[in-house]
Amino acid sequence: MDVQETTAACRDAFAELASPACIHDPYPFMRWLREHDPVHRAASGLFLLSRHVDIYWALKATGDAFRGPAPGELARYFPRAATSLS
Q1: Handedness of CA 46, 51, 53, 59 (dihedral sign)
Q2: 7, 17, 49, 61: which sits with the fewest CB atoms below 10 Å from its CB?
Q3: pTM of the predicted protein model
Q4: Contact status, residue 35 vs residue 10, Cβ threshold 8 Å
Q5: Which among 69, 86, 71, 70 has a CA at the least distance from the CA of 14?
Q6: Residue 24 has what pLDDT?
Q7: Please, are residues 83 and 20 in contact by the beta-carbon 8 Å criterion?
Q8: Of 34, 35, 17, which is closest to residue 26 (Cα–Cα)?
Q9: What is the largest CA-CA distance in the chain?
Q10: What are the residue ranges spanned by the domains of the chain?
Q11: What pLDDT is stored for residue 83 in this prediction?
C-alpha cells in the first residue's frame, strides 16, 4: 500500500481494515496509522488507536470513558463484521 493510496483509505480506517487486502495483510496499514495517524477519528465519531502508549492510556487513565461497544453498536458501525461473527 503506497502513501497516496493509504492517505485516501485513511479517511475511513475501519473500512480499510475490513477490506480484503487489509484482512489478508493488515500490517502495512497499521504501520502507516502508527506513523501518520495514531489516534484516528472516523467520520462515525469512533476512535481507532494504533500505538500501545495511547491504548494503555485509554484503558487505564480514563476510567470507563473508553468502553467497548454495547450490544447492537457493533452491527450499526460494522455491519459486515456483525454478520461474519454470527
Answers
A1: positive
A2: 61
A3: 0.60
A4: no
A5: 69
A6: 93
A7: no
A8: 17
A9: 37
A10: 3-85
A11: 59
